[in-house]
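seq as requested:
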Amino acid sequence: MLQETAPTGEKSWQLQAKGPMLYLYAADYERVDVSIPELTIEFYFSRKHREIMERVGIADTLRQVAQYATNTIGPLRFAQDGKLKLMQVSAYLGGGYAGDGMSVMGESSFVEEGLRDPLRGASGQEVMAHEILHQWWGLGLMFAEGTDPEWSAEGFTVYSTYRLMKEKYGEDYARKFYVEMWRAEAEKLERDFYHRHPEYLDKLPQQYVDTIRSHQYSTMTYCVMPLKILKAAELLGGEEKMDEVMRGLFEKGHESMQPLTYDAFLEACDLKKEQLAL
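struct tokens:
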């Protein structure tokens, strides 16, 4: 609540919080508002990123992602009365969080290097869509990482980005810039010496081990897992069946408040792990 004292013009704020912690954000922000029938988003971003936001068509991207994800995955439960404040924060805060009608994204999601990452999308606009989809996968529904090497929220986010772009640009485009790229990277990983013989990693300096493992992790989460979801959809009988599974997992995650495991995904698909081997 803002109070202004006349005639001095001094301003004071009274802040109230329901819980034991209170977060206060202040920066040189700009704001973009978008609405779909089910959700209104107020997106706050640093003025220094204005050129990037204009280039990726942030308003249209937000609207497209919100409509697709709401229809396909489900409504965001942490939005309040159909409204969400989405705010960019410093990378030093790390990651993101969501609750009580607000969600934050680290500024590392908007750097040029990240927007050129083909594992997340074929263009800066598509990478931005990927990052916004994390409101559903990774924030709207948490994942129990460590249950399988490639299991994380990234696999579902990449797959959902692929489906959105397939809907937007067509099957040929999505196959070329997503599925074929996943397969090429997965095949390179299978040919990688240290992937086939991890025991030799112990003989390398730690800095090289970290680099190799980081690359392996990226390939498994951004390429191998989307391919397994794609294969699961084929075994289930098509994308509509996979949409039903994803909606069910999303709703169940909210009800149980438990992170989603790989075993729970396999059970929902009524598949065995061996059936998704590439």
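The mean pLDDT is 88.
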